[in-house]
Amino acid sequence: MVSFRQRSTSLGAVTTQQDVLPPAGRLPSDSARTVLFTLTGPDRPGVTTAVFGVLIRSGVEVLDVEQVVVRGHLTLSVLVTAGQDESGMILAVRMAGSDLGLSVSGEPGTGDNSKRRRNRLAVTLLGAPLLPSAVAGVTGRIAGHGANIDRIRRISRFPVTTIELDVSGGDGETLRRELAAEAMAHGADLAVSPAGLARRGRRVVVMDVDSTLIQDEVIELLAAHAGPEAEQRVAAVTERAMRGELDFAQSLHERVACLAGLPESVLGEVYAAVRLTRGARTLVRTMRRLGLTVGVVSGGFAEVVEPLARDLGITHVLANRLEIADGRLTGRVLGDVVDRAGKAAALRRFAELEGLPLSRTVAIGDGANDLDMLAAAGLGVAFNAKPVVREQADTSLSVPYLDAVLYLLGIPRSEIEDADEALDDTTRDDTTGDNTTGGTR
Questions:
Q1: Where does this protein act, in terms of pathway (predicted)?
Q2: Buried b vs exposed e over 50-82: b needs ≥16 C-beta within 10 Å?
Q3: Residue 181 and residue 286 in one domain
Q4: How many whole angstroms separate alpha carbon 247 and alpha carbon 340?
Q5: What span, in angstroms and rounded, lies between the C-alpha atoms of 364 and 385?
Q6: Helix, strand, or coil (residue 134)
């Protein structure tokens, strides 16, 4: 295993006006009079200023504000204390809204929405395309459990459509199982995560390599250089392993034996031919910007995985190492095989090196060899995986874009693209670009 690898300021007890808490009783009680204004119509500059300009004259306090614009259509909600002239305030806001071409409702009532919501969850739903049936099915299941959807926002619109629902009042594990099954039935992917601070902060993200970080199986690329007979023998061993006749270590040793005699130079040729999964470069780059640590663990070969990790800026690496003598592959592997248990152990080791608990880890993989790693991680993501892996992982992605993992973590596409604006065209988002390692190094 290899690793490519604030100052605090103390202020005196100075109290400013901002430090002073409002007097007790300033927050409205459940019986206090409040007014909710909802304005809808075409968006234009100055709407918010005009509304709050009217409210200045009413001597009220602002309790809550929420605004959303969808394809130029504005919805603005403002909750304020009632003030002395409730009806006059409502009339004034309606007139201001009318001058702006907006429909305005003013609803007097009591109380605020400040009660703490219990069991807050982030439900992320994505699809390509995302169908109304998926949204209806998932939201219906949420309602059926007595949970409430407090807010919905779009995370991405291309190449997949992703929406995030803030949900309160539901049991996370129960909802995860039922909502994931419902989404899958409608051709969508879904993740349920704790909301709030639990989604933020440092993480360690550990990925499988073959058929996850890259589109290829490296041993198959090596076998192609050894000739048709070696390719057939490797394929036959793989098929026996799929039937359960061999464990991973046995199958690896038998397949590597088929490569005996290959010149060492082939490893460089194979690396140049490796194709990154779409979105892989964007995923790693964005995570590094956010302060997340990225690692890879592979049942493949360090001779290909290590240069790949260096090119992408990946911190931690674990992979099998081929024995080479006199410039040729001997057909043997050095040291212990990185198998299913080895991958999980690597995840724990990477987290330990970063000083983080397993709850702050994310694992991404596609095969049975990744199951222990996915189970050990705080969030296990099955990426275009086999059915047994999808069933056991915390969540799954069936879209062919690895950077969709970012949406599961609540990172919007707009923020990724804004951060990419300063980059050269050669290193921008690779969701639809050239994904060979040699073509973009």
A1: Amino-acid biosynthesis; L-serine biosynthesis; L-serine from 3-phospho-D-glycerate: step 3/3
A2: bbeebbeebebeebeeeeeeeeeebebebbbbb
A3: no
A4: 10
A5: 10
A6: helix
- C-alpha atoms less than 13 angstroms from C-alpha of 344 in its C-beta half-sphere: 14
Q: Which two tokens stand for residue 270?
A: 């194979």
Q: Is 349 found in the same domain as 261?
A: yes
Residue 369 lies in a domain: yes
Q: Is the pLDDT of residue 205 over 80?
A: yes
Please confirm whether the linkage preceding 129 is cis (ω < 30° from 0).
Answer: yes
CATH number at residue 254: 3.40.50.1000
Q: Does 216 share its domain with 192?
A: no
pLDDT, one tens digit per residue, over 271-292 is 999 999 999 999 999 999 888 9
What residue has token string 């219990």?
118
Q: Decide if 21 is inside a domain.
A: no
Asked whether residue 4 is assigned to any structural domain, the reply reads no
Residue 131 lies in domain: 121-200
The dihedral built from the CA positions of residue 225, 226, 232 and 237, taken in this order, carries a sign that is negative
Confidence at residue 14, expressed as pLDDT on a 0 to 100 scale = 36
Beta bridge partners of 41: 74
Residue where a domain terminates, one of 177, 200, 223 = 200
Q: Which residue has the tokens 């009632």?
A: 82
Q: Could you tell me which of 427, 354, 366 has the C-alpha nearest to residue 392?
A: 366
Q: Is residue 294 within 8 Å of 282, Cβ to Cβ?
A: no
Distance CA 35, CA 33 (A): 7
The structure's pTM equals 0.81
- Residue with the two structure tokens 């909600």: 77
pLDDT digits (tens, 9 = 90+) for 58-110: 889 999 999 988 889 999 999 999 888 899 999 999 999 999 999 999 999 88
